[in-house]
From TrEMBL:
InterPro entries: DUF1883 (IPR015073), DUF1883-like_sf (IPR036488)
Xref: Gene3D superfamilies: Atu1913-like
Name of the protein described by the UniProt record: DUF1883 domain-containing protein
One matching Pfam family: DUF1883
Region (Disordered): 84-106
The DUF1883 domain, residue ranges: 6-92
């Protein structure tokens, strides 16, 4: 089976909740791909896969995990010259605030 022929940096996010925001910091223009465990396996084997993200022309880039599951981030230079250093962090989400209470007019 074919394998990816270009270098990439892989971040295994393990199980994450939908709505979690991932912030990726880059030193150069690069491709950033947020994908499910299944799609990461397809990517590694040079098969057609789906992902969120794309070419990141500015840094940092933020991506939101759409649903609960096992997620991966890949940073690669396919189609770009050079190399990009990268780092990721989970962005803390503020807890949901209760809806404001309105009092009846007297």
């Amino acid at each position: 089976m074919a394998r990816i022929s270009f270098p990439y940096t892989h971040y295994d996010l393990k199980l994450q909740r939908g709505g979690t925001v991932i912030e990726v910091t880059l030193s150069a223009v690069a491709n950033v791909r947020l994908m499910t465990n299944t799609n990461f396996d397809l990517f590694r084997n040079a098969r057609q896969h789906k992902f969120l993200g794309g070419v990141a022309k500015k840094s940092p880039i933020r991506l939101q995990i759409p649903e609960n599951g096992h997620w991966h981030v890949v940073v690669d230079m396919e189609g770009h010259a050079g190399k990009a250093d990268s780092s990721i962090k989970l962005v803390p989400q503020a807890p949901p605030q209760p809806a404001p209470r309105f009092n009846a007019a007297s």
